[in-house]
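User:
Care to share a sequence and C-alpha cells?

Assistant:
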Amino acid sequence: MTLENLNIGFALTGSFCTLKRTMEALKELSKTKANIIPIMSEITYSTDTRFGKAEDFINEIKNICGNEIINTIKKAEPIGPKNILDALIIAPCTGNTLSKIALGMTDTCVAMAAKASLRNKNPLIIAVSTNDGLGLSAQNIATLLNTKNVFFVPFGQDDAKNKPNSLVADMTKISDTLYLALEGEQIQPLIK
C-alpha cells in the first residue's frame, strides 16, 4: 500500500518530553509522500517548556509538512463535514486527550479532529504517552481499545521503577501502525 495522495492528519498533544521522538516519526512519515495535515493542541502550540520552545516546534512541523497547522477548534471543525482526512494519528496522545476521546468530549482541536475521524469511519491511530496509563487512564485505554476504527501504536512502560503507571508508545512504529490501520488491522504485538 502507498500513502501517496492520502491526507493524513498528525496531531500532537502536550506530552512535551516525547515531542522530539515524535518529530522523528513525523519526518519518517513525510517520506511517504502523503499529504500530512498537522494539528497541535492549543497547549502544545503555545507553551514553551524545558523540552523546547513552541515556536521552534511550530516552525519544524510546518517545514516537514508543508501545510499550516490546525490549532483551534474552529480550524478543526471542517475536518468532519468535509471528510478531509483519510486517517488521523495522535502522537503523543496524553491521558487528558485519551479521556476526552473516550468520553466524546470535543473541547480541544485534537479532540474535535478525533471525533471527526470516528464520525467518518476513518482510522484513528493513538500513540499513547501518559504518566497514569496503568492508573486512572487505564479505563480510557480499555474503552478505546474496544472502539471501532481506533488503533494503538505499540506501547509499554517507560520507567517501571520510578514511574510504575507510566506508558509510552514506540514512536518508531507509527508508520507501521498506520499502514495496518488503513487495512482495518491492529498492529501486533500491541504491548511491547
In short: The longest strand covers residues 87-93. The mean pLDDT is 96.
